[in-house]
Amino acid sequence: MLANDAAAETIGENAYRRIRTDIIFGRAAPGQKLKLDRLKDEYGASISTLREILNRLSSEGLVVAEGQRGFEVAPVSIENLKEIAALRLLLEGHALEQSFASGDMEWEGRVVAAHHKLASLERLMKGGDFSQTETWKRYDWEFHQALISACGSQVLMDTHASVFDKYLRYQMIALSFRGDIAAKEHQTLLECALARDAETAKLTLERHVEGGVEHALATGAIA
Questions:
Q1: In whole angstroms, how far apart are CA 210 and each of 81, 83, 88, 155?
Q2: Are 51 and 66 in contact (CB under 8 A)?
Q3: Which residue, of 58, 73, 88, is where some domain finishes?
Q4: Which domain holds residue 141?
Q5: pTM above 0.85?
Q6: One domain, residues 155 and 123
Q7: pLDDT, tens digit (0-9, with 9 covering 90-100), for 154-181
Q8: What is the largest CA-CA distance in the chain?
Q9: 65 forms bridges with which residues in the sheet?
Q10: Do 164 and 99 share a domain, yes or no?
């Protein structure tokens, strides 16, 4: 029984991660109906497991439960994007201060390594290669998480990661890439981290997030 329970948990967690990723990266569109029979075939999980997963994602704000009518991917809106961006700024700005104050050489190494990967993808995209947009956003996530990874609070990091995922979802829906502007902002954040310049970093982060919102809205993809 224990082996069977462990296998079921593995299948469930795998299905949860895959469905969540598909929503965040826009493969499951806002408002899309999540039919349990189709999901069962696609993700290899039982109907009961899928209901648990969708309820879990509903509590995260990525899925909407429609009572007897089932589930659908959470819709998007301009107001929601602005709320998510404001919350991200609040959390990340506070975490940056804590991380810059406590970061050591190991932390610096994580930040430099994460920026190197992100900058490499940004150079490709500035050259017109958009074949790795999902990898680009994963590296973006890793860089910002590395910046706050010395904040001393796992709860703060986990909360930030959840909010960042929702912000990332909007960027993927809008296919929002600001090119050299965003790349320079990331470079400035790296330099601020190494110099422990939290004030400039917070101002740069504010421009970075607000600029991302403006660019995403300008595409017209978010109604």
A1: 11, 11, 11, 25
A2: no
A3: 73
A4: 78-218
A5: yes
A6: yes
A7: 999 999 999 999 999 998 888 778 889 9
A8: 56
A9: 71
A10: yes
